[in-house]
Automatic annotation (TrEMBL):
Organism: Luteibacter rhizovicinus DSM 16549
Membrane topology: Multi-pass membrane protein
InterPro entries: Poly_Biosynth_Transport (IPR050833), Polysacc_synth (IPR002797)
Subcellular location: Cell membrane
Protein name: Uncharacterized protein
PANTHER family named in the record: INNER MEMBRANE PROTEIN YGHQ, PST FAMILY PREDICTED COLANIC ACID TRANSPORTER
Pfam families: Polysacc_synt
Gene Ontology annotations for the cellular component aspect, listed alphabetically: plasma membrane
Presence of the UniProt keyword Cell membrane in the record: yes
Chief place where the protein resides: membrane
Highest taxon of the lineage: Bacteria
UniProt keyword annotations, A-Z: Cell membrane, Membrane, Transmembrane, Transmembrane helix
Length: 444
């Protein structure tokens, strides 16, 4: 471990993850407070409806969303490293254009589909108009360009500040809605306003940082012009879009699918378990956010980024084991104190999902390593295979075992995803000598 930390890139990954972690600990507690108020302030059925409405909007936005932050990191970080500002402007302009187009299409599509799906996912007639209004948030949910800009410029401190904005406002609003007995409309409005303000704050930080870096006209939207000057732009964004759409359908869509199979109450229980799962997996998600930009500064033909991936996986996997043990000890009393005894069944789900936690944390570098090797299509195939099998498991196991089957399916899905990503990653490592590194003269 001492030798690992002698590597400046590894130290940067851990440092940036720690910066993000400083806000995520507080954010996780605030999110639990907000969910706890919602769970106690409404019946389990209404709480499940709130979960389904939020999950529906997130699923629609994620399916339509281009992973523009990955595009900015993939093509913009090497350009900044080599002081190629013109190239960076093309990257951010193309990214911003995609955000605008996909956000509008997603919002319109989500509103059109909602009347057809509302009863299937458990949204009652009296709550339909609230859900429809929530869909107007979709355009800001699809935008990822500012995140990519801040990661490329290495301003993880600003991302950490922004990540605390939404849970802070949501916690305050949820406390007010709970004590004022505002019910479902009050909690839904709190979710809406807090998300909107948090998304706007991210854009403000990105614009201010671009000005500080003297990078003008970086957010001038464009599609076909910049794409012609960036080799492989459309291939990358479409592949990562499909990959992330599959991922979102598997994750955020899980709540919707559980709601369809077992009803909104079961969806609420599954959401509680997923909330704790996501909070416990925070260390890996933070390391991934700092890992990807850092390895994009390295030559993929060398062994250095691959060693960084192995070390990061070992560190995250070790943390995953410790976190899983902690969840076993404190999970039950924490769920009881935050959500109430009526949600204790979710602790049984969480126990099963702890195995998935260790697997997902240890496997977090695999996707980024495939991207630096320009193997994004292999990542898409891996994501697609894992998702299809997961959906099959989720439907089959929930049919036979009820809500516990959803937890078993989630564990199986994480294991399948890790395996399907590992195979092409090992292949890419063995062929690393054929990979090329960005050079300024390669700009089209």
């Amino acid at each position: 471990m001492k030798h690992w930390f002698s590597d400046g890139a590894f130290r940067a990954i851990v440092r940036n993850a720690s910066i993000l972690g400083s806000s995520n600990v507080v954010s996780a507690l605030l999110s639990l407070l907000a969910l706890g108020c919602a769970g106690r302030g409404m019946t389990p059925a209404l709480f499940g409806t709130l979960v389904v409405v939020q999950a529906y909007a997130k699923t629609v936005s994620d399916i339509a969303k281009f992973q523009t932050w990955q595009f900015v990191v993939q093509f913009g970080t090497p350009a900044l490293t080599h002081k190629d500002i013109a190239r960076f402007r093309d990257v951010t302009g193309f990214s911003f254009g995609l955000d605008l187009a996909s956000g509008i299409i997603a919002a319109v599509g989500g509103m059109i589909l909602l009347p057809l799906l509302s009863h299937s996912v458990g949204i009652s007639t009296e709550d339909f108009w609230w859900a429809l209004a929530y869909c107007t948030l979709i355009p800001t949910m699809t935008a990822a360009t500012p995140t990519g800009i801040l990661r490329s410029i290495d301003r993880f401190d600003l991302i950490a500040v922004q990540q605390a904005v939404t849970p802070f406002l949501r916690a305050i609003g949820s406390v007010i809605a709970y004590f004022a007995h505002l019910g479902f409309p009050g909690f839904l409005a709190t979710w809406y306003v807090s998300s909107l303000v948090g998304d706007i704050a991210l854009w403000i930080f990105a614009v201010q940082e671009l000005r500080r870096q003297n990078i003008d006209h970086a957010l001038r939207p464009g599609l076909f012009g910049p794409a012609r000057r960036i080799k492989g732009a459309w291939d990358f964004v479409w592949t990562t879009n499909f990959s992330h759409s599959i991922w979102s359908a598997r994750n955020a869509g899980s709540n919707v699918l559980v709601g369809i199979m077992l009803g909104p109450t079961a969806a609420g229980l599954f959401k509680v378990a997923l909330t704790f799962f996501d909070a416990a997996g925070t260390p890996a998600s933070l390391m991934q956010k700092s890992f990807y930009p850092e390895i994009m500064r390295l030559d993929p033909a060398s062994t250095r980024p691959w060693k960084l991936g192995l070390r990061s996986a070992a560190l995250a996997g070790g943390l995953g084991i410790l976190v899983a043990l902690l969840v076993f000890v404190v999970g039950k009393p924490l769920i009881s104190s935050v959500f109430g005894a009526k949600y204790l069944e979710s602790y049984s789900l969480l126990q099963v999902m702890c195995g998935a936690l260790v697997v997902s944390m240890a496997a977090f570098p695999l996707e980024s390593l495939l991207y630096i090797a320009s193997r994004q299509r292999a990542a898409l195939v891996a994501q697609g295979l894992a998702a299809m099998l997961y959906v099959g498991l989720l439907i089959g196991l929930t049919h036979h075992f009820g809500i516990m089957g959803a937890a078993l399916a989630y564990f199986g899905g994480q294991c399948l995803e890790a395996f399907f990503f590992l195979v092409p990653t090992v292949s890419a490592y063995r062929k690393r000598h054929t990979l090329s590194f960005y050079k300024p003269e390669e700009v089209q």
